[in-house]
Design brief:
mainly alpha, 15 helices
């Protein structure tokens, strides 16, 4: 593809008709609702719609109603975590102008995980609310470290250097986690299960604790959408348009880190959602972050819910955690993006 063709393609993406965007919005919302219904009804025990209605009405007399009551918070957790990870990835890609940016690829998930594991092993942390704060701190520290390392040398923070810095950092942090967990048989089982990434342990209590953080993160990212559009033009042009580049980049990154850290605290590190979803959404609504951010939230929620349902179907009566399903889907997509876009900047 020539530079002229690429420019024409980018312009076409920006100029998606609002009517078409509105139609796609209705489609993705309908898909999400259908997947949520499937998530409540499908599992090791099949339930009917009548069982779902009875459970929603407060009945818990039978096994089917009890199964529904267990799946409802699990489904809600998949929705909010998928939305958070997808929006985090979209904002990270906008902040760094890196098509490979993703909380998992940049090592930010692993930074949050290391912080939580350290807190459990050495400080006896047990409350989910404490996990959230320490996970956000770990995610923020890792994001700053990767960006600094990726900015060293000639050319600054290029997409390839950021991806390599993130991969190296992620591998190092994973080694640190193993070094902490292996001698601690008392926490090894639970930590290893949490590290895979899943929503099976979702409860209303966990959702209530993490929801305020996610609301703050979503609000920051939505407010930063217009600034991300300016940053996409380059720092010099954005400054010329009156944008405070450093403040815009810092605020956007803060929102992404809060979303990533809070989601990781309750689900464990789930990769590739933040990579796959923003690229898919750009094909639908273009590159305007005012549309891209909310679309990414809905599609991310649908993707993680679908992954959870698929994990229950393919290994029935056992289950496969969503972290494994998203990795199976996301790894080939990552290779495709690298080969197709040659790791060019957004």
């Amino acid at each position: 593809m020539t530079a002229t063709q690429q420019t024409a393609s980018d312009v076409a993406l920006v100029r998606r008709p609002k009517r078409l965007r509105a139609l796609w919005l209705l489609v993705v919302i309908a898909v999400l609702v259908a997947l949520m219904a499937a998530s409540v009804m499908i599992g090791s025990r099949e339930v009917s719609w009548a069982d779902v209605v009875a459970a929603l009405g407060g009945s818990a007399d039978g096994f089917n109603e009890a199964a529904v009551a267990k799946r409802i918070p699990r489904t809600l957790l998949a929705v909010i975590a998928g939305a958070a990870l997808a929006v985090s990835g979209a904002v990270m890609q906008g902040v760094t102008r890196n098509p490979l940016a993703d909380p998992g690829i940049l090592g930010i998930n692993m930074g949050a995980s290391l912080a939580v594991v350290t807190g459990i092993a050495f400080f006896g942390l047990a409350a989910a609310s404490t996990f959230i704060w320490i996970a956000i701190a770990g995610a923020a520290a890792t994001a700053a470290f990767v960006y600094v390392v990726g900015s060293l040398g000639r050319g600054g923070a290029t997409p390839l250097k950021l991806a390599l810095a993130g991969a190296a950092t992620s591998a190092a942090l994973a080694s640190f986690i193993s070094a902490i967990v292996l001698p601690r048989g008392d926490i090894a089982g639970s930590v290893r299960s949490w590290q895979i990434g899943g929503v099976g342990g979702g409860t209303f209590a966990n959702i209530e604790q993490v929801l305020p953080f996610l609301i703050v993160g979503f609000a920051i990212c939505l407010l930063a959408a217009r600034s991300l559009n300016a940053l996409a033009l380059g720092d010099e042009l954005a400054a010329g348009l009156g944008e405070r580049v450093a403040i815009a980049r810092g605020a956007s990154a803060l929102g992404a880190v809060i979303l990533c850290g809070a989601a990781t605290a309750v689900t464990g590190p789930i990769g590739f959602v933040g990579l796959v979803v923003p690229h898919a959404c750009r094909l639908i609504v273009g590159v305007d972050h005012r549309w891209l951010v909310p679309f990414s939230a809905i599609v991310g929620a649908a993707l993680l819910t679908a992954a959870d349902v698929l994990g229950r179907i393919v290994a029935r009566p056992a289950e496969i955690d969503v972290g494994i399903i998203t990795a199976l889907v996301g790894a080939p997509f990552f290779i495709y993006i690298v080969r197709r876009q040659k790791v060019r900047e957004l």
